[in-house]
Design goal:
Layout (H helix, E strand, L loop, with lengths): L1 H24 L1 E3 L2 E4 L3 H16 L6 H4 L4 H21 L4 H23 L1 H7 L1 H8 L13 H5 L4 E2 L16 H14 L3 E2 L10 H8 L2
Parallel strand pairs: 3-4
Antiparallel strand pairs: 1-2
Helix pairs in contact: 1-5, 2-4, 4-5, 5-6, 6-7
The chain binds zinc ion (ZN) (3 copies).
One zinc ion binds next to helix 1 and helix 2.
Length: 212
């Protein structure tokens, strides 16, 4: 059960990455609009990006809730995805089905709260703040946890303030967190919009700055 649940969380994180990149942002085509297999969701998502950049990370669609077509599109899409994958995984692992349902609900909770409380977002999911506010919005695809952005080299950090405590995006004791960050950065280094000044500091100082 628990192995299935954890496996389901990993699959859901991979899905966040793939769906956000290929369905919500779409594939760039020279001289033509971007291609998405679900054009309505792509349209809704780019409208979300425009709104968020105009309003310092706020999205009024979440205040309006169900009456807002973009919010409705997100809820219905999550329900469809959870229904399809939850059913597919059921014969394989009930734990995976459970984690698919959890992940869909958690995605909505996190994404909605992030755009209602931008300060909370900067602390809890800084990778998503970077996703919207960096000049290149085609990076930082994961929303709830940054795992597959590290694995696939698409975590692009804009500033030390917006570097997560560690690549798991989970609060851990500082010693563990720092070790994990060092280890992951050797294997799957995060990219930076600009090389932070801290790089020129010694590692103890750098750790001090990063370790918040
Ligand atoms: Zn996006
Ligand atoms: Zn508002
Ligand atoms: Zn967003």
């Amino acid at each position: 059960m628990w192995k299935g649940f954890i496996a389901g969380l990993v699959v859901a994180n991979a899905f966040e990455w793939v769906a956000h990149k290929y369905i919500l942002h779409g594939t760039h085509r020279a001289g033509k609009p971007r291609y998405s297999p679900v054009p309505d969701s792509m349209k809704s998502h780019w409208e979300h990006h425009r709104e968020v950049r105009k309003t310092t990370f706020h999205d009024h669609g979440y205040v309006e809730g169900w009456s807002n077509w973009r919010t409705k599109n997100e809820i219905v899409s999550l329900a469809v995805v959870a229904g399809v994958f939850g059913t597919l995984f059921y014969p394989v692992s009930k734990g995976m089905t459970l984690s698919v349902l959890y992940s869909a609900g958690n995605y909505y909770y996190i994404h909605r709260r992030a755009h209602l409380e931008p300060d909370w977002a900067m602390r809890k999911i800084p990778w998503h703040y970077d996703h919207h506010m960096n000049s290149n919005q085609d990076a930082n695809w994961c929303v709830t946890k940054p795992w597959f952005d590290y694995i696939l080299g698409t975590r692009v950090i804009s500033s030390l303030d917006l570097q997560e405590q560690n690549p798991l995006g989970i609060a851990l004791p500082h010693v563990v967190s720092n070790k994990l960050t060092q280890w992951v950065n050797q294997v799957f280094p995060a990219k930076w919009v600009q090389t932070p000044k801290a790089i020129t500091l010694n590692s103890a100082q750098a750790t001090e700055m990063v370790d918040r």
